[in-house]
Amino acid sequence: MKTALISGITGQDGSYLAEFLLANGYAVHGIVRRTSSFNTDRIDHLYADPHVPSRLHLHYGDLASAARLRHLMEVIQPDEIYNLGAQSHVRVSFDEAEYTADVVATGTLRLLEAFRDYSKQSGSQPRFYQASSSEMFGASPPPQTENTPFYPRSPYACSKVAAHWYSVNFREAYNLFVSSGILFNHESPRRGETFVTRKITRALGRIRMGLQDKLYLGNLDSRRDWGHAADFVRAMWMMLQHSVPETFVVATGESYSVREFLDVASEYAEVDWRKHVEFDARYLRPTEVDSLCGDSSKARQLLGWKPEIGFRDLVKSMVDGDIELARQELTLAGAGHTVSRRGGVYG
Ligand code: NAP
Ligand code: G4F
Q1: Residue 94 belongs to some domain of the structure
Q2: Paired sense of beta strands 256-257 and 247-250, if any
Q3: How confident is the model at residue 344 (pLDDT cuts 50, 70, 90)?
Q4: Which of 211, 229, 315, 346, CA to CA, is 20 to 30 A from 23?
Q5: Is 133 annotated in the active site?
């Protein structure tokens, strides 16, 4: 049985990747950071009772703590490491720049050093996946490939560029199997509620159920290449099964504006978004990424990867999920429970 270690297992991608690896017979170990409220919603269905034997194991840990990462590497002895942990919100990174750099850039370096030393001491040849991002291309125009120059436009993107180059350097300097996946935006019904797609579908569900009236958004003109997270975590795994470590772009090759996303989602939700959406400058970024559309020919040719879920099916699954969620909220409200407006500072 192969053993995988995932940082960021409680996030959108971590939950889909854990499902995928468990279904493929892996023992899966996840690093969970300690928070004052529960943060395991996305993986609770995989981990019903910690007292029952399971192939899923959770450990407290944080990308801020090198000592803990080294300890986990030594006791878990993973065959594959997936570094998905991050402060992953671009707008938040402008406010929390230093923290974002510490987790995203230096956190990756901490995990790579633990990985390098564990590889040497154990004599084994584990494999490392780095979650790089299309945000690294920033202002470089589409279509973006593995050869497109990076032009990061946010502290988050700068940190991801650093983490990417740390990964490439560890591959070359120490002859380690480190692959970097430059993934374009990928969404799902499990997407965090402050990212634009989920913010939209969550609001449409609530508007349809009469729980909300207004949706405040920023720039509707930017374009993104949106795929489904379940397809994209498969690409992560395929990179680690490939014969050599490399850098791969993973993308659908189609791009839509935020406004177009609103159009399609509203059509499914049967809500006229123009009656409900208002502009709020707090959601603008000091420097925006205008247009992302990836060319993933390399991954398609060398890994045999291709996306299986198209844009309209992705949007529909998110709208369906959020209408159901709003229906549950309405039932709770009808039974006299307080329905809180979820979201956070940027929600
Ligand atoms: P996400 O939903 O925001 O999940 C991020 C994960 O990182 C969560 O499990 C979070 O824990 C964890 N985390 C945050 N700070 C941490 C710390 N200090 N130490 C350890 N773990 C920490 O992100 P995602 O969408 O799944 O993305 C996964 C990775 O791919 C991220 O690195 C992201 O930057 C990158 N990426 C995402 C996309 C995309 O479109 N989704 C595209 C390209 C690259 P909590 O649950 O406690 O917050
Ligand atoms: O959904 P977003 O916040 O995603 P963004 O900035 O593209 O970043 C995501 O994808 C990256 C991959 O390219 C990941 F690396 C990163 O971790 C994250 O998962 O914003 C998408 C677009 C932006 O142009 C933004 O300005 O939507 C625009 N937008 C308009 N109104 C909004 C809003 N974004 C958010 N979050 N909230 C708004 O109200």
Answers
A1: yes
A2: unpaired
A3: low
A4: 315
A5: yes
